[in-house]
Design goal:
This protein is mainly alpha-helical and about 270 residues long. It is about 70% helix and about 5% strand. It has two domains: about 70 residues, no CATH class; about 190 residues, Up-down Bundle (f41 fragment of flagellin, N-terminal domain), CATH 1.20.1330.10. The strands form two sheets. Strands 1-2 form a two-stranded antiparallel sheet. Strands 3-4 form a two-stranded antiparallel sheet. Strand 1 and strand 2 form a beta hairpin. The radius of gyration is 33 Å and the shape is elongated.
């Protein structure tokens, strides 16, 4: 074979080594159907690990359900916060003593619609038929691990107009509008605290979910090693070798090596 440069010579040797490695990997994966599980001790250990995996799987399901609750809550709280901010703007406008009766009535109409909108958001913000912001989430227990004591308790307060202290608020007079401002500031602060709580809980849940996932991967890998060849790792190694072969063949193509000789190397 005539090679026109040193890169081609290196690529030929490297490709030969990759082909040998590829053949070895294929043989290993082919023989992986014969388990090591005939060893009773390994089999018993594997069963215990499988039991642990099941526990982690249940904990992960519980954790992700709780994350779903928190995400739904955050979406509802965002809408409620937007309504409250607009209601406050209206209350500021209504505090102006020079407004006509028609102008004040228009402000009150929009104010009432926004308040009704908050109650509607609360009714529609549900997860598994539970009103997430309607007081249905009280002392909700979340299993963060497979063992006893690895629990988290979550409570979300009601965010409806009555719970926010806005049930009797109106803009019918300058005085009422000023009172509404104080009540709205308190409600906005309440929603802000709840959103901070939801954010903190979500971060903790997501961290727990990552730990559960990593542990499950490690345990699953342990079972695979105990009972059979690590098929996942073996397949990844095989894929990587094939990609290296393709890349090296590309180098050979740029080194003016006869294509027929490359095909012979690749079998």
């Amino acid at each position: 074979m005539r090679i026109n440069n040193n890169v081609g010579m290196w690529a030929i040797r490297y490709l030969q080594n990759l082909q040998t490695h590829h053949n070895s990997q294929m043989q290993s994966l082919t023989q992986a159907t014969v388990p090591i599980q005939q060893n009773v001790a390994f089999g018993a250990i594997a069963e215990r690990i499988r039991s642990q995996i099941n526990g982690y799987r249940e904990a992960m399901m519980s954790t992700y359900n709780a994350i779903g609750v928190m995400n739904v809550a955050e979406g509802g709280l965002q809408s409620i916060s937007n309504n409250l901010q607009r209601m406050r703007e209206l209350a500021v406008q209504a505090s102006n003593g020079t407004l006509s009766e028609n102008e004040r009535a228009a402000l009150q109409q929009e104010f009432s619609q926004l308040a009704q909108g908050i109650d509607k958001v609360v009714d529609q913000t549900t997860y598994n038929n539970r009103r997430v912001l309607g007081g249905d989430i009280k002392d909700m227990q979340v299993q963060l691990g497979p063992n006893e004591g690895q629990r988290m308790r979550i409570t979300l307060p009601g965010m409806d107009i009555r719970s926010l202290g806005l049930e009797n608020v109106n803009l019918n007079s300058t005085e009422n509008a000023q009172n509404a401002l104080r009540a709205l500031d308190s409600a906005i602060e309440n929603v802000s605290r709840t959103r901070s709580y939801v954010g903190g809980v979500t971060n903790r849940l997501e961290g727990a979910a990552r730990e559960l996932s990593n542990t499950m991967i490690n345990l699953t890998s342990s079972v695979s090693v105990l009972t059979d060849t690590d098929m996942a790792r073996g397949m990844m190694d095989l894929i990587r070798t094939r990609l290296q072969q393709q890349a090296t063949a590309g180098i050979l193509g740029q080194s003016n090596v006869n294509a027929l000789n490359v095909l012979r190397l690749l079998g």
